[in-house]
Every structure is written in C-alpha cells, then in structure tokens.
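Researcher: I'm preparing a figure for a lab meeting and need a structural model of a single chain. I don't have an experimental structure, so a prediction will have to do for now. The sequence is pasted below. Please return the structure as tokens so I can convert it later.
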Amino acid sequence: MQTTLSLIQADVCSIGGHTKPSDSMLEGVRSRVREKTGNLLIDGIVTYTGDDIAIIMSHRHGTGATEVHRFAWNCFLAASQEASRQGLYGAGQDLLVDAPSGNVRGAGPAVAEIEFVRDPKSKDRPAEAFLVFAADKCSPGAYTFPLYTVFCDPMHNGGLLLSPKIHQGFTLTIIDMDHKAKDSDRVIRLPVPERAWDLACLLQNPDRFAIEAIHSRYKPDEQIVSAIALAALRGVSVEIVMPEHSDHAPIDWASRAQLGLLAPDIRAYLAPQPFSHAKLMTVDGAWCLIGTANWDVRSMRLNFEFNLECYTEALTAQVDRIIDSRIEAARRISSEALAKRPLPYRLRDASARLLLPYL
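Model: Understood. Here is the structure written out token by token.
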C-alpha cells in the first residue's frame, strides 16, 4: 500500500512570550484533523514546538498533494482566526500569501514528507516506525549531532556493534545549504563506518551542511525494488529491460519471480540474444549508471565489480539510444502474464528467487 507521511508546520500565533499556541487554537486544528481521518487522511496528530503548530498526517495522496496541503493551510487559517478572536499577538505571521497555488511550499509553512510502500505481510518490515523531529528558531544543522551519534558512534549506540542488521552500516546523504542553484541541490553521499571521519569533517559546519537522508545498507536489493515501485506509483515512466536468456538458467527463473512482484504500471521487457552483461540505467535524460554489478547482495558484497554514475546529458542520451534499441527488439511481459503461467513454472521461479543471495 502506497503511503505518505506529511509534516506541515507553521507559526500562526502564540500566547505571550512566543512560548506555545493557545489551547483553543490547538483544539480547533485537532477537531479538523479528526473530521478528515478516515477519508482524506489515514490518521493524524496535532502537536506544537515552541509557538509553531505541527500537523503530522498519513495519507495515500503522495507528496505535494494539493488537497492535503490545502487542508493544512485551512487549519492554520482557522487557528489564526481563533488567535485574532483571543487578541493574541502576530496572528497568521507565517502565512505569507492569501492562498497557496497547489502545495504550501514557499508560502510560509515548513514541509517535510516521505513516501513508502507499507506491506503488512513483509517479513522484514510489517510496520513502519517514525520519529519526527520538530524545532523552532534553529537551522537544519540542529539535528546533526544527535543523528551522527545514533548512526555513526558505537560508543553511543551499542546496537551498531551488536545488531547484525545495522552493523552493516548506513549511507548518509549530506546537503550543501550554501548551494544556490534554483533547480538542483548539491548532495554528498558517504558510507559509514568506512567514511565516518570524512562525514564528521563536513558536519562540523552545521550552518552549511546538514543530514538530508540516512539509508540502511541491510538488504539493498529490496530497497531498490521499493524505490522503483514508488516511482511508478507517483506516475514516473519506468521501463526495465532484462535478457530473455542469460548465461545461467536459475537466474532467468529468479528474475521472472522478481518481475511478478513489481507494480503493474512498470513496463518490463525481455531482450533476445546476444546476452549482454552490462548494467545501464538513465534518469530524466540527465543521469546515467554504467557498469557490470547486479543489484543484489552477492554483487554488492562479494563480486569484484563496479558501476559508474555520470551526470551528463550527452552521455545519457547515448545510453538512452542503446536502451531504446534493445526495447525495439524485445518483447513486453506483464505481471499478469507471469501469474497465468502453469503452476510448476511459478513454483520453479519462486524457489529460484529464494536462492538469489547465492546465485
């Protein structure tokens, strides 16, 4: 199930001293969230940090959803009107426009959203746990030290030594907040513990560098499959081309089982001979990945292979043409067609999928 967690926060007024919103302001927003729970929202929580009201919502409308952002905006307007009625100072001070067009980004409120696929039947992640950091009058670098100690310092977090899952480490994405480009961010991805000292060097400057994301390195292949499925659910055009016959039949069987698990919006193709071991990927005509490593545990941890990321439109266009030529000669296959095959074939493929870490 595709699920989105949205946190939208704004300062619309407070009692004296900029300490907290009034109780009636908070209750007014909470009553609105209760009214929308079960239809617009799966559920929601209203809290505050300093004099900011924070609305935490789960829903199925994706990030930047107009209806969800407009609902939060209307909640803040109602709280502002209640503040005015009470004679409080600075009512609606974070609401910078009369009405936002689409989502509220740039209109005053702070926004943080994440999208994921929730699968109650998942052996590894039947539920998702969230810890929301909310703060007022500070920079994004305020969270740097606690996050660093939790994910990078075994003297602080003994689980880094004791848990086989988190002992495998993390990849931290660092954003350069001094980068001024309008259409792109400058980010740095560092694996820890291997580059923990390089990470510490950057994070010593919390006014410039902040942690944008932290990803576990446990079962990276499943994370990739989830990311591809989420992209398709958001409406991104996703095409996957695989060889119809590789150099190992069990790999072909396991691949069919993997394809059957993908979202129906993903277009999958089986390319004819000759078999190519190259791994190619492109995104939006601006980024490409070229290499030989598969996206599985064996290739990422045991095999001596590597892939190369390239941020160049010219090279990406060449790779796109190669992929398009393979698609022209390939045949499309759907998850529905895979599910209709005879039971012995499906059992064979599912059994091979269980052996993927060893193939």
